[in-house]
Design brief:
The mean pLDDT is 92. The protein is globular, with a radius of gyration of 11 Å. With 81 residues, it is an all-alpha fold. The protein starts with a helix and ends in a 10-residue tail after the last helix. Helix 1 packs across helix 3. It is built from 5 helices and no strands.
Length: 81
């Protein structure tokens, strides 16, 4: 679970960047990425990762590098590989 917590921190950072209000955030993520509220909640608390296709959608939505989103490496913005 230690590796998932930094991912959750980056997801929370993206939510702030994208101006998703703290209240109802997991509901909004669930609607945006067509998943359950429980799944979105697990992303935000570090209990689970999204599926690969959803990770790509999240990176595209937020305009961030996939490697940064997943691993915290490389530039946050720019090349999305």
């Amino acid at each position: 679970m230690e590796k998932r917590l930094p991912f959750a921190e980056r997801m929370l950072e993206l939510c702030v960047d994208m101006k998703l209000p703290a209240r109802g955030r997991q509901t909004q993520l669930a609607k945006l990425f067509k998943c359950s509220q429980q799944a979105a909640g697990k992303w935000l608390t570090g209990q689970a990762y999204p599926q690969t296709d959803t990770i790509l959608e999240i990176a595209d939505w937020a305009g961030v590098n996939v490697n940064w989103l997943l691993q915290g490496v490389g530039p946050k913005h720019g090349n999305r590989i």
